[in-house]
Amino acid sequence: MSDPQISYGVLSNIIGHSNDSGWLAPRGVVLQILKYKRDEKNIRFLLHDGKNSAPGFCTEAPEGLDLSDLENVPNSLIRIQNYSVRPMKGKYYLLIRTSEYIGKGEFPSEAPTALPVASNSTEIFSFVNDQHKLTKKEDQTASNDSRHPQSHPQKKSNGIFTEISALTPFTTKWRICARVEYRSDIRTFRSKTSGNDGSLFNITLVDKSGEIRATGFNEIVETYYNMLEPGSVFVISGARINSANKKYSNLKHDYEITLDRNTTIEPADDFSESVPKMIADFTPLDKLADVESESVINVIGVAHNVYDATSQMSKTGKEYTKRDIILVDKSLFMVRVTLWSETATKFDESKQGHVVAIKGVRVSDFNGKSLSVLASGLVINDPEIDEAYNLQGWYQNGGLDSNFKWISNSGGDGKFETPEKYLTLQEATENRLGMSDTPDYFITMAVINRIIQREPYYPACTQPNCNKKVVQQTNEKWRCEKCDVEIEKPNYRYVLSVPANDYTDQIWISCFDETAQVFLGVSANELYDYYQSNDEAYKHVMEDYNHNEYIFKIKARKEFFNNVERVRYQVVNIHPADFITESRKLLDDIQQY
Length: 593
What we know:
It is found in: Nucleus. The protein is mainly beta.
């Protein structure tokens, strides 16, 4: 439901009647701010009336609204007294002259519908407060509203374009209409053949059919880089099409574009509404367990946790930066995503609780699933797509307080399945599970009785895909022998063996970082800090788990210890027992007899 103060559906009336000179326009319109951006001259909003959305801008902030408080601007309600309707860059805009802040609204539960594009009319319609009606004027759009260089004026087009998905080296006289989804920084290089210095950049272009990478070198950088702003739409033709170099691109397209002297690029704002802002085949988090390791995928979720960026040293002595974020979605699963270098540095910590779309992440299945953003990956905060609106609405309307679960691997190490029958610990031992040549897996309900280890964690390497133990040096840094690097601070990880009991037997089970966090309730880094500084908090964590029942998925496999054959039980997944669900399951079992 929309906020009761919002002027529901009013935007379609205002814009739909903008050509009717005698129409009485509403005054005191109440709209909600969904997004906000400020540049040197204007304040830009995405406005919402409970049903539709439209962009708006003003030169002064609404009275009573503190724009410096970035967290509180979104969802704010403003009452607009004096405004104009302008067709500009293919859209209708509200030019707000007088407005005031009246309070906060709820985040919309459904994605608003963008209103239709503007016609080619050069007129604007202005609402004047004392006359209380729309009157026609000549267009007074300032020249500085255009972001494109005057050397590239927009031209009319017949609207017949080649789809990106159809581009091949054999396509002749092609012309695409595409949006710049991503633009890299300008990078410099030295040619191995000529020894000359050069520069390059690349962009990702999207239309409804797909996406393709385009690269420009040297003079193309000077000519087009500033023009090709992310989010802008262009008609492009005359460039070369080559086979895609998958070493530098994770896009699915078999080919890529090289911009050269024969390339023509023209702004095409008139077609903006027909070109998607983003194209991605997102993998839901609850499906990650079935994705093979080293696969490259796209994900979208809410940044449930954003950790500090940390500096580390590579094997070659080069310093780099990493940052971890925890993504969650409606499936109630969570996954750790690692950002690297400039992507990690630029990620805004205030985006915790906001939707993040990431294109180009590599899947790892070491001790459960985790994701790492590629150098060619793209991280987009608050993308303007339906998936993002729906996720943000869910998270702000209760999703934040959900009980999220870590994702583990598929197959034998898979995500949790509900079995037809749990095994008791006695059944697992009497049936000699784990004593064959291949591991056995079973699910049981048991209690963790106690933790004997006082410090059930170890200092681990922070390098990608390395969790080896590090050793503290005399210079107070930590060294990983496997990676041959020194780091400032280790990442503590759980490794412990604990007794599990049910009413039939007891076994000792091994738990690693992801599974131990479930019953301890805090990360190993947090428990280490408690142990060093707050003994009471440490004791609380180590005693609070006692006698709680959990559902375990256990891997049983044979091993030799001191020349004695035995079974090792490793926890691959765990979640707290839901007694309502378990009671219903018992009733179903009873009815079968």
